[in-house]
Amino acid sequence: MRLATAAFAALLPLSAAADPVVVELYTSQGCSSCPPADEMLGELTAHEDVIALSLHVDYWDWIGWEDTFGKAAHSERQRAYASAVGSSVVYTPQFVVGGADQVAGPSGMKLAQLIEAHRGATGDVLRAASTAEGRKVVAMEVEGGGQLVLVTVLPRAEVKIMRGENAGRVMTYHNVVIGWDVLGEWSGEAGSFSLPAPRDGYAQIVLAQRVDGGKLGPILGAVKLD
């Protein structure tokens, strides 16, 4: 596992970008095949041109261990991605890159190739700004617009799993999504949007995603907030 994640890290250059690629990992503490993918997501958090998000699902809770970060909303989001490609099947681990491409399991080479393919694909769409009125996100003009979302993440967490397929393991998770709040629908016109104050110990990310008739589309832009 260590060799696999080291090789994966070597595939991706450490470079900053104004246009980060969003990588979502759908995972579960009750999934025995998830730990290598969880490690890969941890590797991605070192890359400034990637926003890596760990979304824990709840549909494996019945097999012996209730995921401490599992949310039904994450399971529904994953199902929405499956529906977008004409499928009803969901599984863990699964990576979704840029809201468009899906990778089954901890396939480091394929994941690295997709991240590289998505670099620069969206343009510098969102920027963070501090004003006298508080923090804001500034959106550039984009045809069609989409949905603006505030994502709250726990940067790092250790969990001792007591039962289920990973019983006895102490797992480290990175950028665990604990809040997914829609800021509003965005017409695509240039403008700014106010943001709530951050919670101590948590990080915030704003992303814009195409949503057409309730179906999830590509991520148009994203920005990490200081």
From TrEMBL:
<dbReference type="InterPro" id="IPR036249">
    <property type="entry name" value="Thioredoxin-like_sf"/>
</dbReference>
<keyword id="KW-0732">Signal</keyword>
<dbReference type="InterPro" id="IPR010634">
    <property type="entry name" value="DUF1223"/>
</dbReference>
<feature type="signal peptide">
    <location>
        <begin position="1"/>
        <end position="18"/>
    </location>
</feature>
<protein>
    <recommendedName>
        <fullName>Secreted protein</fullName>
    </recommendedName>
</protein>
<dbReference type="Pfam" id="PF06764">
    <property type="entry name" value="DUF1223"/>
</dbReference>
